[in-house]
Amino acid sequence: MNKQAHILPTKPGEDPDRRAHQAQVKRAILEGQAWGLTYLLARVQDHAPYDNYELPDSLEVFEFTLKGLLRLEMMDKPQYAGWRRMFGSNTKAHEMSTWRSRVALKAFASSAAALDFIRADPLWTWQEQASTIPAGRQDDGWHAVFQVQDVWIARGRYRWSELLAAFLLNDSRALKLVGLFEPLAPAGGENHG
Amino acid sequence: MAKHFATLIWDWQPVGPLVTGYSQNLAQATRRIERGAREVINLQTHDANADHTLRASFLATSVKGVFRSAAEWLVERVAAQKGARHFVTCGYGLAVPESKHSQLGITQRSGLCPVCQVFGGTGCLSGREVAPAQRQVGRVRFSFNAANDATYGKTATSPRYQFTWEQVEHTGKPLLIEQLHFKPDTVLEARVEDADDFALALLWLAGDLISSGFFRFGRFTSRGYGVVRLQPRACLRADLSTLLGGSEPQPQALANTTSGHNAARAFLHQEALALVTAQVQAWVESFAA
Description:
The complex is a heterodimer of chains A (193) and B (289).
Chain A (H helix, E strand, L loop, with lengths): L17 H14 L1 E12 L14 H17 L2 H4 L21 E6 L2 H9 L23 E11 L4 E2 H11 L4 E10 L9
Chain B lengths: L3 E12 L8 H6 L9 E2 L3 E3 L7 E6 H22 L8 H6 L18 H6 L20 E5 L5 E8 L6 H6 L6 E7 L4 E7 L3 H16 L14 E13 H5 L7 E2 L6 H9 L3 H17 L1
Parallel strand pairs in B: 2-7
Antiparallel strand pairs in B: 1-8, 1-9, 3-4, 4-6, 5-8, 6-7, 9-10
Helix pairs in contact in B: 2-6, 6-8, 6-9
């Protein structure tokens, strides 16, 4: 039986919806701010996820390349492709100074190290009840932490963190979602995006 | 009531090295790199405490901007919780293109937003004609140890970074980055004029947002320059006559305070979020008046 080829795409090709995709991200950021902060924790499930791509040997280089890897993984998946610009865009946005990446990334050698980082977040002290972040393990390999500044997207049907969580849970070959923590839940009832 | 001055002091604790690089164009213009070189070079300033040689540094001016961004986000969040249906800070209001002003409810109004009241501004929501008349200088200044406007570290070269698509296509030269490592005793100070409870609470909470890593210095990819934990160390608040008096007042140590939220509770004996909420709610209600 032939092994199915898994190729990481690098060329977006002709995207007839390019303008629409740009516009929907701009609109979400302008009109759909959720004012919430969410952690997503994902483990590296495959260091050679594609026939034409292997993860770097160095954790530091992996952290540097992680954003690019996810953008490429999303590129040929219609449900995600239009939201890749939530990682930031070099499109000339003029007055939209707030159009920076809606997710910050950090990589760790184990779940224990990643969870230590999340547990040390001072925002947990804003809560009335103490946080219950598990301890994690020292020997379970590389993990990535996603710190999401949340935005309502798809005309307010769901949030950017929820879409990213779904991608990491179901559709990334490199990463697998293993945890979600919310130091500041979304505020306000309005959502437009 | 006498005008008070305050100094807030945080321990500056980077989680890993920081990168404070500037653009390739500037690096080329100052002949720090060759045209076309793929390097990120740190800013350099004169070290006032040493021999005045140029050294790689992290500037306090960039700190103020990130504190302001975090404070704007927090004020907008609190305003949304209090029922605001549009942006209430000048920073977010200015980011909206004029073509969207009516759709997003950005209306001209007089007065300085709560963030401009602390960090300075012109009341941008007032419109360009009114704004200059109500310009307010910022009440807060940031500095590093001993009132220096920068902090200095040792540089190390990063591993060779290569973008993912370049790895796949076997193209492009690896990117070299100068990383900054700081001494462990680096501290950040904020000096506040007219230091009311709201200003201190807003600064401490903005410090927590930065310390969390959700709000990072720099726009260097999705990692920013890196994460810095800001642990409140001490605070001093005094009026001018006390400051000019014979015995110099010492900052009050904030022992066992892992966050600005806890520091406010220990120093102000009030909840920082409640202080910010009270101020923001009054601003939100003024929109409806």
